[in-house]
Amino acid sequence: MKKLVVLTGAGISAESGIKTFRESDGLWEGHNVMDVATPEGWRKNRELVLDFYNQRRKQLHTVQPNIGHQILAELEHYFEVHIITQNVDNLHEQAGSTNVLHLHGELFKVRSVKDKNYILDWKTDLISGDLDPNGFQLRPHIVWFGEDVPALEEALVLTQQADYFAVIGTSLQVYPAAGLVEYTPPNIPIYYIDPNPGTMQNVRNKVEIISLKASEGVPILKDRLLNLM
Hints:
Blueprint: E1 3-8, H1 10-14, E2 27-28, E3 31-32, H2 33-36, H3 39-44, H4 46-60, H5 67-74, E4 80-85, H6 91-95, E5 100-102, E6 105-112, E7 119-121, E8 138-142, H7 152-160, E9 164-168, E10 190-193, E11 207-210, H8 214-227
Parallel strand pairs: 1-4, 1-9, 4-5, 9-10, 10-11
Antiparallel strand pairs: 2-3, 6-7, 6-8
């Protein structure tokens, strides 16, 4: 099977009702992102950060994948599909995608503040006093601003192996994720689905821009890809 690699961003989840801070003047659900999505914010007010992600986790229990997520899952019948997502929700998995790499972490997981490899599934509230076996606090398994992106190396390898590459629902403003497209093999088809697409720099390949939201553009992507088979 040919390998389809897809980079997804907040736009595809927004259609399921999940808000992104970039839509509201730097605020994420009413909070300054520096207060809830940085190591400094965590050190300053742990209770605020824990409550913020508890609320995001509860919200995730109330939303469903949309047609964009569903069609990407269906494409596994025809291609070896790998989703590289900037989103921390699990909507790709809910839709049935089996190869999902989360660049920025996952809401339904927590990890030790001391041991980054101690990771647990977690679907309820996380509170101060929830500890790892060595007595260290558990924190949201989220890559905050200023932190390394552990999954980036794997994402680069996948991108370099792609036969087809698609970018869906992202403005390509958040690095290092935005730079992945620069590592695609020469001459492979690239598709960019977003109602307000950003600029792709240093990309050698021809890019087909589909200026639509994910629910409208992903069905077109499916047709394009199936016509290449």
